[in-house]
Each structure stands twice: as structure tokens, then as C-alpha cells.
Amino acid sequence: MELRQLQIFYVAAQTLNFTKAGLKIGYAQSNITGQVRQLEEELKVKLFDRIGRRIQLTSDGKKLLNHAKCILDLYERAKEDFLPQGIGGVLNIGAAETVCVYRLPQILTEYRKLYPQVEIRVQTESCEHFFELIKANNIDIALVLTDKIKSTEMVVQTLHDEAMTVVASPLHPLAHKKNIKPHDFTDECLIITLPGCGYRPMVLSLFKENHVKPGALMELSSIGAIRQCTICGLGAAILPKIAVQDDLERGKLVELDWTGPKIDVKTQLIYHHEKWLTPAMRAFLELCGSMK
């Protein structure tokens, strides 16, 4: 059993697609298949079930995946101990769209000044998917926008308490109304994020707990699209204030006189409690902590 074979198996187990695994690590699909077959012959087990064009890990494959992760983590750790001074490597970050646009650039600007040799990869995704991506080791760290995180598998670091605000076009019927509460949305359109967004459940619970159903829901996947549709008067929205601050200052949106329940949302950094922290990760965590 060679380290290269374990590396190939690990990527194949993550992607569950030999072609994608080959593209990810620069090997031909036939090479991936051959190395996996050699592992199976050496260990005398079946690592993947091949059903049609799809592959799935067998129980033995899942067992080897756990061993492979430990071995590869130790390998990376050993390399770090003997590398010249200076932090390098790759840092894989997941970030909710709002955090990616309005919080992360400031952090990355400072990080790049301090650690220019680190290769940074950032992907945006819905908050609920980040937990699986971290557990699958596809990302190292995630920055999410949600309420209290109850997962015992994650280390959680709160970076910012985010003010939420209810906004609409200056021409919207609610724009000049006083003491707006959930029941004022009974005949109004609420523009909201798609399922998976960290704060969407809190927004919907707010109305449900007050026995109110908005006149209509308009669901959009992008904060930018929600802002533009709200500016056009298609409805009102409840968004992190940091995402609409510029629109409020320019008069494109107005902050409604909301006297309903407060929504508690935080920008939080999470990573798996069993994750070995590379120097690049440790440096990022320390920087985030210093920039609170």
C-alpha cells in the first residue's frame, strides 16, 4: 500500500466519481481505476460498489477512508514540521454569500499581507451544506450567518453580531407606516432567500409564531437579486443591515419602523473539532479573532 494510492483512493471516495477524481488530482480516469483495483487486490476487499455509472463506498471502503484520512493528515503534519519557515499551503474556505461579499474581503486582505504564500480557495454555498463539506474535508473552515450553532462536532467562533433590518423601496406602502409588526405583512409580499440560508428559518419562524402568513413569498437565491427586487418595489425584505447599508445611504431603500421581534443573527466561523489545524488554518483563526 503506497501513499499515492491512499491519496487517489481518498479523492475518489470524496467525489464518488473516478473521472472527477482524476481531474482533481491530474490523473487519467484509467489510472484512478487501476490504483483502486490494486488496493482492493492487496487488501482483499471490495472498496466500491459499482452500480451502473455510479459508485458508492462499501463498508470496507468506509473503514479504509477513516484510516486514509488519519494517514494523510499525519503526512501533511510531518511535511509542515520540516518545511522552511514561512506559512504556505492551501486554505479552503466556505462562506455564506453575504459574509463572502461584506466581511471576508477585509479578512483576506490582511491575511494576504501577512501570508502571501498561502493559496486561498473560497466557495459560496448555503449554510446548511457547509457542515457536510467540513465533515467530508472538502473545506477547512466555513463562515456562516445564522443563530446559535448546536452541533457538538464543530468548534464555533463568533466574529460579529449582525443587525438585521426590514427594508423596502421608498415608494412601498409600508415605507412611511409607524410601528410595523408581523401582521402588517398579511397583504404584502416578503422577498426572502431560498431554503438553506442560515437566517431564513428565523425569518419564517417570526411570522409563524405570530400566526401571520405574508400575502406572498418571492424566493431568490442571491442577496443582490433580493436587494434589486426590493428596490424595484416588488416587496419588502428582512436582511443583514451590512448587505443594504449602501442602498440605505443612497436612498434606494428605506429602513422600516419595525417594532416586531428581534432576529438574532451572527457571523460565525466553524471547523471540525477533529480537524488537524495546519499553520495556514491556525493563522487564519488567530487573525479572525484579532479582527473582532
Task: Characterize the structure shown.
43% of the residues lie in helices and 22% in strands. By secondary structure, the protein is an alpha/beta fold.
Number of separate strands = 12
The span between the termini is 46 Å
Report low-confidence residues grouped into runs of 5 or more.
Answer: none
* Total count of helical runs of at least 4 residues: 11
Written as H for each helix and E for each strand, in order along the chain, the element string is HHHEEHEHHEHEEEEHEHEHEEH
The portion of residues assigned to helices is: 40-55%
Strand order of the largest sheet: 4-3-5-12-6
* Large-scale geometry: elongated
- Report the average pLDDT across residues: 90
**Helix and strand composition category:** alpha/beta
SS strand fraction: 15-25%
Largest sheet: 5 strands, mixed
C-alpha-based Rg, rounded: 23 Å
Topology record:
Layout: H1 3-15, H2 18-25, H3 29-43, E1 48-51, E2 54-57, H4 59-82, E3 90-95, H5 97-102, H6 104-114, E4 119-124, H7 127-135, E5 141-146, E6 154-162, E7 164-168, E8 189-193, H8 200-209, E9 216-220, H9 223-231, E10 236-240, H10 241-250, E11 254-255, E12 265-272, H11 279-290
Parallel strand pairs: 3-4, 3-5, 8-9, 8-10
Antiparallel strand pairs: 1-2, 5-12, 6-12, 7-10, 7-11
Annotation keywords:
292 residues, alpha/beta, 5-stranded mixed β-sheet, 12 strands
Short description:
By secondary structure, this protein is an alpha/beta fold.
